[in-house]
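Changelog-adjacent note: as of this version, every example in the card shows the full chain rather than a window. The one below runs 71 residues end to end.
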Amino acid sequence: MDTRVEAPITGRVFRIEVAVGDAVEEGGALLVLEAMKMEIPVEAPRAGRIQEIRVGEGDAVSEGDVLALIG
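Full-length structure tokens:
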């Protein structure tokens, strides 16, 4: 089953560090959110492979929005 990676805060997607199909380790950086001039890294909750990325750089996201899926 795929694991949902959710936004921990409301902000804007500043940078995406991975692509669909990439293998990631638990704790590895997936993307960076920007909120109030601060950069907040979003890390993989578990090891796996990126199945889907649901946001693009510059997109506004709300806390709890699904950003990516790890299979």
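Structural remarks: The radius of gyration is 11 Å.
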